[in-house]
Design brief:
- This protein is α+β, with helices and mostly antiparallel strands.
- It folds into two domains: 206 residues, Cupredoxins -  blue copper proteins (Immunoglobulin-like, Sandwich), CATH 2.60.40; 88 residues, Cupredoxins -  blue copper proteins (Immunoglobulin-like, Sandwich).
- Helix content is 38%, strand content 19%.
- The strands form three sheets. Strands 1, 5, 7, 8, 10 and 11 form a six-stranded mixed β-sheet that branches. Strands 4-3-2-6-9 form a five-stranded mixed β-sheet. The protein has a two-stranded antiparallel sheet with strand order 12-13.
- A hairpin with a 4-residue loop joins strand 12 and strand 13.
- Helix 2 packs antiparallel against helix 3 and helix 7 crosses helix 9.
- The chain is elongated.
- Bound molecules: dinuclear copper ion (CUA).
Length: 356
């Protein structure tokens, strides 16, 4: 190869690497225009129920701080005042047993403090649980699975996974548009927790719990399952994408638009393989014979930000790795290694990429 040819090929390679490094996430990914709110700090609430919990926690912490100061203050005072002195005779001090007054004091005062703490907490929990939801509140159902979240908008006819999309609300209660969430579980106990938006609420098998979100600002809020539920509990991650009202309407419209039929030869081959293997026993693609319900609905897979309930960002590389062997990315997850050949993985990935 001539010097010029070598130089050109080098330029092409460097550009290629730069392109990969700076490649934006897949164009169809929904919600990346909003700020990423990775804050998992419950003292920075951006939603009414989270704010109520933060206030109650502040009161509880103040009471605890008071106890801490009194106890350590007395301890330091006693240690200094009754320290060993040079003129001490070295004998044991007099031992005093039984003082009804002191014993009553250290029993009754802690009981009263505990009652106050319990009242503060249960009052807040009660207020959040009993908050009346407006009749027109967006309602959705979140079902916990080992180890992912099924998200169903029954009124809108949308089913998705791991990323909850909702419209922003308002600090002004009169203008607030909260989202009402019904929580259920398909297997074991999970817990829905997005620290900046709402406190933990468990998803319990055979029981229906409820929570609500009332976010003040748009953004991608990070949350996770907060109840140990098995091997991949730590990778049962959750995102709540809070849209502007227009952004939410756009997302709804996009979710309701069926994905285009596979066109390229590779996509058609992958489509065939998807239906010939057991993919369809667990996954649904709306409008097709794939109606499995054990795994996430894949109809609009490519609009999601992550794969494997947040185990990785969704891109060509992670999608390929997941289809090749999900056990490598998320050991113990319920999707088995399908023992596919590399060309089969290529084709299935090409088909999955049409799901947008
Ligand atoms: Cu689900 Cu922990």
């Amino acid at each position: 190869m001539s010097l010029r040819g070598t130089f050109l090929s080098l330029v092409v390679r460097v550009c290629g690497v730069l392109c990969v490094l700076t490649a934006p996430a897949l164009a169809e990914t929904a919600g990346l225009e909003y700020p990423m709110r990775r804050v998992t700090d419950m003292f920075k609430p951006l939603s009414r129920p989270a704010e109520m919990i933060s206030e109650a926690a502040g009161v509880v912490l103040l009471i605890c701080l008071g106890i801490f100061l009194v106890v350590t203050g007395l301890l330091v005072f006693i240690v200094i005042k009754f320290r060993r002195r040079a003129q001490d005779d070295g004998r044991e001090p007099p031992q005093i047993y039984g003082s009804t007054n002191i014993e009553l004091a250290w029993t009754v005062i802690p009981i009263l403090i505990t009652v106050v703490l319990a009242l503060v907490t249960s009052r807040t929990i009660g207020e959040i649980q009993d908050m009346p939801m407006p009749a027109n509140a967006l309602k959705l159902r979140v079902v916990g699975h080992q180890w992912w979240w099924e998200i169903r908008y029954e009124d809108l006819g949308i089913v998705t996974a791991n990323e909850v999309h909702i419209p922003v609300s308002d600090r002004d209660r009169a203008k607030a548009t909260p989202t009402h969430i019904v929580l259920q579980s398909a297997d074991v106990i999970h817990s829905f927790w997005v620290p900046q938006l709402a406190g933990k609420t468990d998803l319990v098998p055979n029981k229906t719990n409820e929570t609500w979100l009332d976010p003040y600002e748009t953004g991608v809020y990070f949350g996770n399952c907060a109840e140990y539920c098995g091997t991949q509990h730590a990778n049962m991650l959750l995102r709540v994408i809070v849209h502007t009202p227009e952004g939410f309407a756009k997302w709804v419209a996009s979710q309701k638009t069926p994905p285009p039929a596979p066109q390229a030869a590779e996509e058609i081959k992958g489509h065939g393989l998807f239906y010939a293997n057991s993919c369809i026993n667990c996954h649904t693609v709306d409008g097709t014979v794939a109606e499995g319900v054990f795994g996430p609905n894949l109809t609009k897979l490519m609009t999601r930000q992550t794969i494997g309930a947040g185990v990785a960002e969704l891109n060509d590389k992670t999608l390929w790795a997941w289809v090749d062997d999900p056990q490598k990315m998320k050991t113990g997850c319920l999707m088995p290694d399908m023992q596919l050949l590399e060309p089969e993985v290529d084709a299935i990935v090409a088909y999955l990429k049409t799901l947008k």
